[in-house]
Structure formats: C-alpha cells, structure tokens
Input
Amino acid sequence: METLYQDLFITLTLNELFIRLMFGAVIGFCLGLTGVGGGVLIIPILQLAFGMNPVLAVGTASVISSLVKVNAAISHVVAKNVSWKEVSYVLMGAVPVTFAITEVIVRLTANPKYNSMINSVVEVLIISIMSFALASMIIKLRKSKSGVEATEVKGDNKVKGISSGAACGAIIGSTGVGGGVLILPTLNSILGVDIKRSVGSSIVIALVLSGISAIKYSSGGQSDIATALVLVAGSFIGVPLAVRVVKNITDSGMYMVSIAIISISLFMTLIGM
Output
C-alpha cells in the first residue's frame, strides 16, 4: 500500500493528477450516459496518453470499468433502468466464459514466447469489435429516425440470452470491450429491451464481467492500479451528471451520442497502432 500511495501522490505531479481526473470525468460521463465508455474509451486513452500495451491496457481498463460501474450501476438501479430477467440470462452464459478466457490470456501473456502475438491479436479484436458496434449503432439510428418500429423479438429469451452472454463474455474477457458496444445492442436488438433500460442493464452486466476480468488480469500483473484509481476518482464527477441527462434525451439522441463516442475511440485506437 505504501508503494501505491507513493505512485499516486509523489511520482505523479499535480498537473498529471489533474489530467487523469479529467480523463476519468469524461469516461464516467460517457459510461453513465450511454453505457459506452468502458473498454471502448478507456483503452485508447491508456494506450495513447499513458503508453500501455494492449493487454496491460485491457487489464487496467477492466479495473477502471468495474470500479466506475459500481457507481453507475447503483444510479441506474435506483432509477429503475434495469431489466433483471434479461440480466440474469446474459450472466448465466457470460460469467464462466469470461473467467476462462481471461485465464488463458494472462497465462499466455506471461510467456515471452507468446507475449507479442497475444498483444497483436487483442488489438485486432478490439478494433473489430469497435467497428461492429459502430455499424450496429448506425443501423439502429437510421431505423429510429425513419420511424420504423422495432421488430417484435420472438423465441426463447433465456436461450438467446445465455448464448449471447457467452459470446459477450469471451469478447469482454479478451478485449475489455463490450459493455456499451456489445451488451447494449444484445439487450436492445436480440432480447427486445428498450434502449434506456438496455443502458442500465448493460452496465450491471458489465460490472460483473469487468470485475471478473479485473481480478484475473491484476493477479497476473497485467494492470496499473495507481492510474486506475485516479481515473476512477475522476469518474465520480461525470456519472451523476450523465444519469440526469439520460432522463431528458431521446432514443435517437442516445444512438447519436453512442456513435460519436465509438467513432472517436476507434480513431484513437487506430492512431495508437
């Protein structure tokens, strides 16, 4: 603990602390507003601003996401923006897969023979998921603006939820990306949850999965706890503001903000490569 305090208050200058706090505030606002902002926004910031490699960035982002989502999840639960039945279905499939995939990545990264390869694979996966999420949100926005009614979701939500959860768990465990850009579309498009409840539900699910990833990556030495704590502190400025804004924003507005955040993050990630 003494070393951690030294990292936070001695190694970092006041200016560096302030910058990290501001980054944290932006992350918290984006996360609370759209469910997007966990891995999507944090990982590019960690790579560009703090020079982390992909796996270390994923591990640190998992720590930040899990801690930030505690505040955001509580806020959405209180606001009754969570669809608990669908949340339980997704977690049934996601939890075991997330645990397994993070274990594999941590073990392979610890081996110098595979370290470079795993970092490259993780970076490609992150870009692929961001691109998929961006395309998905654009399609949803067009449907929303054209007045096309959402197609009634048919079939067994439990089966779809568990299978979709397994896929989300694998991606979140390997890339740290998935809360707003993967789980949210899954809840909204596949399970038929309305967009605002999808945001709250995706944050609750991502809290659990990010927590699992954070524990696994940290135990393998693949996370920067000092940087994570400062960014989390800053997020507590942004999350409460975002939850208030959610109540007054239209569905189209939610999609447009999500698209903007994902686009900026994708651009930052490509620059980081």
Q: What stands out?
A: The chain has a mean pLDDT of 80. Residues 38 and 217 are 16 Å apart (CA to CA).
